[in-house]
Amino acid sequence: MLGVFERDVLGMLLDGKHPVLSVLRSQLLLCQVESREQTGSGFFTNLIVPRTCSPVSPSRLQIGDVFAEMAGLKYGADLTLFVSDGYMDFLEGTSFEEPWPASVGDYELSYSRSRSRDRSAIRLPKN
To answer: In terms of pTM, does the model score above 0.85?
Structure first.
């Protein structure tokens, strides 16, 4: 089961009117957590999406325009969703050369260090 932080991050990463984002939001409804890995300076949340869901095209992409300010991280963290073979594969959080907190407490999410989304930061195919 996705944690609150993971769900909030994925909700922001997948927000928007692009058809690829819409398909990924459909996948999010049915995805499960396969595993979580701490890297020292971040984390990976490995996801499983049922293959009964529609895949996206292009089949490999990254969406990474969400930034987190959080307790325990002086410089915050970047968050990126990786898509492989048309399905959400994993969520990665990376701090800026400081240890990832033992647990995620208070946090505030924004787009590319601003309050609104910079559409140029999302590299998706044109409609």
So the answer is: yes
